[in-house]
Design goal:
Length: 229
C-alpha cells in the first residue's frame, strides 16, 4: 500500500507540473511581448497602407517648372503622378487631369500594376493581423499565412519601386496626339535628357514619391515586429 500511495503522489505531482507548464506556456504565448509585437505590426502596416494610398492620390511624384519664354516671366509648373497630372501656367486656369494607367509608359503601367497588387496584399495582411489582435486563438492558423503573404508582398513592392524610376527615361518623349500625360517634359539644359533613375533639371521627385518610399520602408520595418509574433 505505501508503494501505491507513492506512485499516486508522483503521478499527481507530474500532472500538476505539466498543468503548470502548460499555463506558463499559454501566458508566454499571449503575454505583453506578443501583444506589443502584434500592435506594432498592425500600426506599421496601417501606416504603410495609408502612405501608399495617399501617394496614389497626388500628382506630385515628379515636379518641375519649365520656362516657356525666357524674355518674359512666363513659365509652367508640371506635377506628374501615376494617375494624375497638373499643369499650372501663369495667367491660365489650373489644368489637372487624370492620365489613366493606359496613358503612361509601359514601365509605369507595370509599376502601377505591382503597386496595386502590393497594396492589396498589405490590406489583406492588416485585416488578418487585426483578426488575431482581437482573437489571439487564431494565431496558429492565421499568423503563418500572414507572414507568407508579407514575404510575397515585400517582393512585389521592391519590383514596383524599382520600375518607377526606370520609367523616367520616357518622360521627355513627345506625347502622341491622344496622350498628354506622363510625357512631353522639357529639360532646362539643351542636350540633356531623362535617364533611367535620373531626372533632368528642372524636374525632381516630389512629395508623393517620398510618401510612397516612407510607406514601403514602414512595410519592411514591420517585418521585425512580425518575427516576434
Amino acid at each position: 500500500m505505501p508503494a501505491r500511495s507513492t506512485t499516486t503522489t508522483a503521478t499527481s505531482a507530474t500532472g500538476s507540473t505539466f498543468t503548470s507548464m502548460k499555463k506558463k506556456r499559454s501566458r508566454e504565448t499571449y503575454g505583453p511581448r506578443f501583444y506589443a509585437a502584434l500592435i506594432g505590426w498592425t500600426l506599421f502596416v496601417a501606416f504603410s497602407l495609408a502612405s501608399v494610398i495617399y501617394a496614389f492620390s497626388l500628382p506630385t511624384w515628379i515636379t518641375g517648372t519649365e520656362v516657356i519664354d525666357a524674355t518674359q516671366p512666363s513659365n509652367i509648373r508640371r506635377e506628374v503622378g501615376l494617375f494624375v497630372q497638373c499643369n499650372y501656367e501663369a495667367g491660365q486656369p489650373d489644368n489637372c487631369f487624370k492620365t489613366g494607367v493606359s496613358n503612361n509608359s509601359t514601365i509605369w503601367q507595370v509599376s502601377s500594376f505591382f503597386f496595386a497588387v502590393a497594396t492589396s496584399g498589405a490590406l489583406l495582411i492588416l485585416l488578418m493581423v487585426l483578426s488575431v489582435l482581437f482573437n489571439p486563438t487564431l494565431k496558429k492558423s492565421i499568423i503563418p499565412w500572414s507572414k507568407f503573404i508579407m514575404s510575397i508582398t515585400s517582393i512585389v513592392f521592391i519590383v514596383a519601386v524599382t520600375l518607377f524610376p526606370l520609367g523616367f527615361i520616357y518622360l521627355d518623349d513627345d506625347c502622341a496626339s491622344d496622350n498628354v500625360g506622363g510625357c512631353g517634359l522639357s529639360c532646362a539644359v539643351s542636350g540633356s535628357q531623362m535617364e533611367y533613375f535620373s531626372l533632368c533639371s528642372p524636374y525632381k521627385v516630389g512629395s508623393a514619391s517620398f510618401a510612397m518610399f516612407a510607406g514601403v520602408l514602414a512595410f519592411f520595418i514591420c517585418s521585425f515586429c512580425a518575427r516576434c509574433v
